[in-house]
# Entry
Amino acid sequence: MSSAHKQTGLVAEEDLFFSEGQRQTWGPWQRAIFGEFEGIAYEYTEGKVTWRRWFLRWGQILLFVTYNGTAEAAERERTAVEQLLSTVRPEVGGEVYPFHRADIQ
# Structure
């Protein structure tokens, strides 16, 4: 998991998407919401490896989350990974940011 902080303005939906070439490799995206963060998710298989990628936003914060494993492990760990993502909170120095997902258009 990594993050970026947009210096001006809020992270827009178009900030979540990679180049057309990557999207063709990754296939169709799905809407994803985990706690206060929302965005898009991809799931695809390369060889024997299942990849799951999330691009999530909240205000000026953009999260990049990647998971990979065998198809069996990915399915077995799906619930645990999604529960973990649901615990992520938008904080800086222990303080929650002063706006909510509903403020993002």
In short: Residues 71-86 form the longest helix (16 residues). Residues 1-8+42-89 form one domain. The longest strand covers residues 37-46.
